Structures are given as C-alpha cells and as structure tokens.
Amino acid sequence: IMTRARIATFIAALLILGATVIKAQEPASQLTPTDAQTDEEKQKEQEALEKKAAGLLEQIVGQVQLLRLPENRIRVQTAAGDLLWKRDEERARSMFLLAADGVAEMMRSSGDNLERSAFQLRQEVVLTAAQHDAALAYQLLATTRSLTPAAETGNDFRRRGPNINLEEQLLAAIDPKLAAQKIEEALAKGQYPNTLTQVLAELDSQDKEAAAKLTAKVVSKLQSENMLSNVQAQALALNL
User: Fold this and answer.
1) Phi and psi dihedrals of 215, rounded to 5?
2) How far apart are alpha carbons 119 and 76 in whole angstroms?
3) SS3 content of the chain, % helix, strand, coil (to 5)
C-alpha cells in the first residue's frame, strides 16, 4: 500500500511542475555579460528542477497500482495525464484511459456511495482531458457512461441524469466551433443543452458569422416547439 509520505511526495511533484513558469527574458542586445551569465544559470537551475520533478512524478506513477483505493488511483492517473501532456502526450493519454477504466469499474460495483463518488471522478477525468483534447474527452465520456443510468431526457429538468449534465459541461469546456457542431447534433435530437447560450457567446467572440448561423438554427428549432410541453425549450427561449 502506498504510504501517506509517498502520496505527499507525489503532491510535491505536482506543485513543482505546476510552478515551473519561466519569466520572460530581456532581449539579448540589452543584456550585459553578467546578466547573460546569471540568466543562463537560472535556466539551468530551472531545467534541473523540472527534471527532478519529472523523476518524482514518474516514480509515483510507476507505483500507482499500489494504491488500495480506486479513488486514489484514478485521481493520481488524472493528475499525471494532465501534467504529462506537454512532455509525453502518448503516455498522458494512457493515464487518462486508465483513469476512465477505473471509473467504469467503480460504476460496475454496487452501492450508492460508491456510485456518487464514481460520478464525481468521472467528471474530473473527462473535463481535465477536455483541456487538452476534445476527441479524447468524448471517448472517455463514452467509456465511463453509466451502465445503469436513471431515466434521462433532454426535455424535463427534473429527470436530467448525470450523463446529460456532464455532456453539457463538456460542451462549455471544449473549443466553441466543435461545441457548435455538437449542439447541432443535439438540436436534431430535440435536445437543448443548458450551456447552449454560453457556447453561443464564446463562439460569437471567435466567429460572429458562425454564431449568427447557429443562433438562427436554434431559433428556427424553437419556433417549431410546443413551449408548454417542453420545459427546456421554454427556458432556452427565455435565456435567448
């Protein structure tokens, strides 16, 4: 079993890697020989620090299977995937996939408490991956989809389950143009994501023409809806 000391070491590695922000250097023409030498020394120290932190991270990741609780393994794998992405994308992907497999395994276990914990971890894994690769995030979303979900529908707020809620959070986390494509797919199914207005606003800041076209499609779809029977469409119309 991994000791608390080793988990603390992992956390220290996360903090070191997360704090490796190098200050912008002055133009070379403005640096004196002493300044240049000092800057070079700082750069070497920074590289040594990053190398040490990366070594600590690899050491803990290599021992992650020793963690007894699946929640701890999943969180370590998720954090490792996040940190490793720029250094080793392939390895980072494998960490996210392992974390997703762990969540799916938790979902196959019985018990309300374990299920609630699994849904929380699912959200962490999917949304963390979304910061790096939307396609991977949707893959993890499918891998971790609840095996026995409660009744879900896009039209009734009272029956909206964890799958729909996380899908909508993911829409707001990915690139607005890709999110717009996903929204069009949802509209075709008669669904109106809660984060639709947020996506429209973000898309408008990037591409006003694309935002205008999507807005027109949303309005056209809403006009064909019965607002009295479709609560979600009614709420979206009011927001718009």
Assistant:
1) -60, -40
2) 17
3) 75, 0, 25
For residue 112 the two structure tokens come to 């309300």
What are the per-10-residue average pLDDT scores of the chain (240 residues)?
54 55 43 65 78 71 72 88 88 93 84 75 94 93 71 48 78 88 88 87 90 91 86 84
Q: How many CB atoms lie within 10 A of CB 196?
A: 25
The count of other CB atoms within 10 Å of the CB of residue 189 is: 8
Q: How far apart are CA 196 and CA 190, in angstroms?
A: 13
Q: Residue 80: phi, psi to the nearest 5?
A: -65, -40
| Sequence-ordered list of residues with C-beta below 8 angstroms from that of 127, at least 6 positions apart, any chain | 137, 169, 170, 173
Check: pTM over 0.85? Answer yes or no.
no
Please answer whether residues 192 and 232 qualify as being in contact, where contact means their C-beta atoms are separated by less than 8 angstroms. yes
Contact 145, 119 (CB under 8 A): no
